[in-house]
Amino acid sequence: MVKHIVLYRLKDVSDADEMIKRFLSMRGKIEVLDSLVAGKDIVRSERAYDVALVCDFKSKKDLEVYAEHPVHLPVKKFVHSVIVEAHSVDFEY
Is 85 left (phi over 0), alpha (psi -120 to 50) or beta? Predict the structure, then answer.
């Protein structure tokens, strides 16, 4: 299994709900995507990011398929238009 975690800092936090809605819209539409959760930070500490995305895949190959999937690409394009930065980690477990 592969866990994909991405943390996002947004230009404007008011875009967080739309971003999360778009993430959640991918559920059930990408066959290699086993699970997906997304949410807004609730603590708002100085070091916090605004939104987190956590996905599970059966393999690294499935993660690669997801990255280029036609359902994912427009979501990714929107995300890139509203973020300042993103940091990710992908690991096997």
Answer: beta
User: What range does the domain containing 60 cover?
Assistant: 2-92
Tally of structural domains, the chain: 1
59 vs 44: CA distance, rounded Å: 33
Q: Choose among 80, 67, 2, 78: nearest CA to 34.
A: 2
Which residue's entry shows tokens 């990011």? 49
Structure confidence by residue, pLDDT tens digits, 30-89:
999 999 999 999 999 999 999 999 999 999 999 999 999 999 999 999 999 999 999 999
And the tokens for 82? 């509203």
Cα–Cα distance between 80 and 64 in angstroms, integer?
Answer: 18
Q: How far is it, in rounded angstroms, from Cα 38 to Cα 58?
A: 19
